[in-house]
Amino acid sequence: MHLASDAAVVLLSGGQDSVTCLAWALTRFARVEAVTIAYGQRHRVELDCAARIARRAGIGMTLIPCDSFAALGGNSLTGPEAVSDGLRSDSGLPTSFVPGRNLVFLTLAAARAWQVGAANLVTGVCQTDYSGYPDCRADTMAALQTALRLGMDAPFVIHTPLMALTKAATVLMLRDLGHLDWLADSHTCYNGSQPPCGTCPACRLRAKGFAEAGVTDPLLGP
Amino acid sequence: MHLASDAAVVLLSGGQDSVTCLAWALTRFARVEAVTIAYGQRHRVELDCAARIARRAGIGMTLIPCDSFAALGGNSLTGPEAVSDGLRSDSGLPTSFVPGRNLVFLTLAAARAWQVGAANLVTGVCQTDYSGYPDCRADTMAALQTALRLGMDAPFVIHTPLMALTKAATVLMLRDLGHLDWLADSHTCYNGSQPPCGTCPACRLRAKGFAEAGVTDPLLGP
């Protein structure tokens, strides 16, 4: 299968990391589009954020539903339980870990890329701020890239521009790319609050990054 | 993550190959359950077949929905188009190839296996009767196994007992396992006909296998 090496599909969740990846991709590839997965997020606002950011960026966005993980249950990102940063007693992984989720989402992004002939996949996974998610590691991404290449007979490249960055460095990357304002339409809060709750693990991680970067979060005000 | 090495999850589509894999798994593992993916098959009868076969085998079956591929479209197994064995002009792959489908289905089976602590995944992919599906090859399965192990931090083993078998050998395997009668509840026909249409590529492949094995297909009569 021939794929264009100057075309990319970005996994866009509407969160800070994926927004930064989108801005990064636009500087690298001539043709960029977004894939957003509707996986039964507890907060539909995330999908609205992704759509608004795609509009700001002037790119197309494909919404791909994925009802599998909500049906499988057993995790705190689609279930009704409050999100904490606790660890599961059986695996030692965070309760927010959904086994297979990133693998499936990237495979769906690759399926879309196959359809439109794009060789590049871009995702905001990050090993530095690694919170115990094994599907965010570089070696997992390398193995998945091999599986996607063989399984679709197509020379995909998975790009992870944030893999080695701290949250502060991610803030500065987006600022330097000139699109910090896009974050006014982003979301991060696990509890789906607008303005963000400020106390969940995701809000605390985001606030820490902006503080260390010495930058004001556009989501929190002008 | 600790997984039991004597427990397995079998991907059960309700077709001949997956039925044979189920019979094989029951001779190898102490604890076996099935995962069936509802992916927008054109024929709901396939899901009924899988459920009946799981009942015959006395095992539990988890139905996992996956609405992603029907939404992505562009293939003949979920779309309204008639199924042929034609090749796509862009990739040279069969029109029935759905990019990423087997990768996602196996990842979902692994997600279920993670939940129930089963180390073994069993799938009926086959390289011998390889019809141009790159996601049925042994090297794809090996790469996916690595990605699943790393991505879920769990020592999964993907078993492909039919990988090197002809269709005739698969018929004889199921007969020797003593469960040829289970095929009375199986399906194969791409057109969803009961009795099978006999003319679609899947029906022709199945008939050829039984003819070469010198065995009467239980689906076609007593």
Short description:
2 copies of one chain form a homodimer. By secondary structure, chain A is α/β, with parallel strands linked by helices.
Tell me about this structure.
- Two copies of one chain form a homodimer.
- Chain A has a five-stranded parallel sheet, with helices on both faces.
- Chain A has a single domain, classed as Rossmann fold (3-Layer(aba) Sandwich), CATH 3.40.50.620.
- Chain A is α/β, with parallel strands linked by helices.
- In chain A, α6 crosses α7.
- Helix content of chain A is 38%, strand content 13%.
- The longest helix of chain A is centred in the middle third of the chain and has 16 residues.
- The model of chain A has no long low-confidence stretch (mean pLDDT 89).
Secondary structure layout plus pairing:
Two copies of one chain form a homodimer.
Chain A: E1 4-11, H1 16-28, E2 31-38, H2 45-57, E3 61-65, H3 68-72, H4 101-116, E4 118-122, H5 138-152, E5 157-159, H6 167-176, H7 201-213
Parallel strand pairs in A: 1-2, 1-4, 2-3, 4-5
Helix pairs in contact in A: 1-6, 6-7
